[in-house]
Design a protein that fits this description.
The complex is a heterodimer of chains A (about 325) and B (about 100).
Chain A lengths: L22 H12 L12 H26 L8 H26 L5 H9 L16 H22 L5 H29 L3 H20 L11 H6 L7 H18 L10 E3 L4 E3 L5 H11 L3 H14 L1 H20 L1
Antiparallel strand pairs in A: 1-2
Chain B lengths: L7 E7 L6 E8 L3 H12 L7 E6 L11 H5 L23
Antiparallel strand pairs in B: 1-2, 1-3
The chains are: A mainly alpha (about 325), B alpha+beta (about 100).
């Protein structure tokens, strides 16, 4: 799963000013990044670079963790044992992805507790996609196919992102992610080839998930003020619109191959561009979901907070156990 | 609520016997045993390894990037440490 960098509540619109940085160090940094060198935790970096990364990596981590919720709800309702074990493995992977990313963000000087606190208080954002409900089993197929598909599009270039720990986390994640997309597409193709009712279910899921998936790539380039700097610093390797186009070009033939229809009357192949033209995205809906007005935004946060609070006694017991053992070992 | 902050551990995995342990990432855990179990779940879900090391991150002493030149540059002018520095007659076999 992936989130493009969204503004947090209370974030000032101007990023940290580069004018306050040491010009010599800044120039050396810019040159290193431009030469595709990796920046490591102890290297000098501009504050704006650090802040942008903390925000982007932690949002990415939160998305992985919140992404476990809609799918976790379906584990007990998966139609057979094969699907159940697959879904269980996928949800476990998402948890792992969240942890790789939290660890990468921690190398920039933030703490796990701060990030979790920001998620639970609603201060931090996560991908808008998880604020839509999963109504039928076909939604689990659509999520794997489209949401994880969009995630792969976004994440593959991030394997060469300029911050070393982030890039390394992305390498691991990408390796694990492609099965997520395939199992989702398989669910969809089985349903699409099933009874008329099953096919309707698959089409309905595609109808509901198509546009939110396109929105996952974030606002259009001309409305994405941080894009230019992030591209220059190799935090982002490609712009939102470039990635979105690539996703459409790959996914439309996949839908056609299993007899499903992409819900966009404006969609047509553009011979001259060698790409699909597609309809306008409802950005009002996107910003409403970013503001936390998604259909199930409250449930998602409540579920996270409940999981955290219900687990408090485990964390406490483990800490007490560890300190007792340490004392006993010191006494021996 | 005493939400004790669990320390950070660096995780090293041996991919198969005969190879060295390699750093793969980090986990938070209350103690070493728990760090091993967390590392197993987080870093070896796909048969990535046969052995794990976890080391408290605080125990690692790292070189400072500012010293990079002092520490590593002197090697650049000691090319005579490499076999390709030397010429041997044509046709003579290498050991």
């Amino acid at each position: 799963m992936y989130t493009t960098e969204l503004k947090d509540k209370n974030q000032k619109s101007a990023p940290v000013s580069l004018a306050d940085e040491d010009p010599e160090k800044l120039a050396a940094f810019e040159a290193r990044v431009a030469a595709d060198d990796f920046i490591e935790p102890k290297d000098w970096m501009p504050e704006a670079y650090r802040k942008t990364l903390v925000r982007q990596i932690s949002q990415h981590a939160h998305s992985e963790i919140v992404g476990m919720l809609p799918e976790g709800n379906w584990i007990t309702r998966a139609p057979n044992l094969r699907r159940k074990t697959i879904l269980l493995a996928k949800v476990q992977d998402e948890g792992g992805h969240g942890l790789y990313l939290y660890a990468a963000a921690e190398t920039l000087g933030t703490s796990r507790e701060e990030m979790i606190e920001a998620l639970h208080s609603g201060k931090a954002k996560y991908s808008t996609i998880f604020n839509y409900p999963t109504l039928t089993w076909a939604d689990i197929g659509a999520i794997g196919w489209l949401v994880d598909g969009a995630a792969i599009m976004n994440q593959v270039p991030l394997q060469r992102t300029s911050y070393g720990p982030y890039a390394r986390a992305m390498v691991r994640i990408c390796k694990e992610e492609s099965f997520h997309q395939r199992q989702g597409y398989e669910i969809m193709s089985v349903l699409a080839a099933g009874t008329p009712e099953q096919k309707r279910m698959a089409q309905d899921a595609l109808d509901r998930w198509w546009w939110p998936s396109l929105m996952m790539f974030g606002p259009p380039d001309d409305k994405s003020p941080n894009t230019a700097q992030s591209v220059r610093w190799r935090i982002k390797r490609e712009t939102n619109d470039e990635l979105r186009q690539r996703f459409v070009d790959v996914t439309v033939p996949q839908a056609e191959a299993i007899g499903l229809r992409v819900p966009d009357p404006a969609l047509r192949w553009n011979e001259a561009r060698g790409s699909y033209d597609f309809g306008a995205i409802d950005w009002e809906e996107f910003y409403a979901v970013v503001r936390g007005e998604g259909p199930v935004a409250k449930e998602r946060t409540q579920a996270r907070v409940k999981a955290w609070e219900d687990g408090a006694w485990v964390r406490e017991a483990a800490a007490v156990h560890a300190s007792k053992r340490a004392m006993r070992m010191a006494a021996e | 609520m005493t939400d004790a902050r669990w320390p950070l551990w660096e995780v090293f995995v041996r991919a198969k016997s005969g190879l060295a342990h390699k750093h793969v990432g980090s986990v938070h855990a209350a103690d070493g045993r728990m760090a091993i179990e967390a590392a197993r779940d987080v870093y070896t879900r796909r048969m990535e390894g046969v052995s794990l090391w976890v080391v408290p991150s605080s125990a690692i002493v790292a070189s400072d990037p500012k010293e990079t030149t002092d520490l590593f540059e002197p090697a650049a002018d000691k090319v005579y440490r490499h076999p390709t520095f030397y010429t041997i007659p044509e046709g003579v076999k290498n050991i």
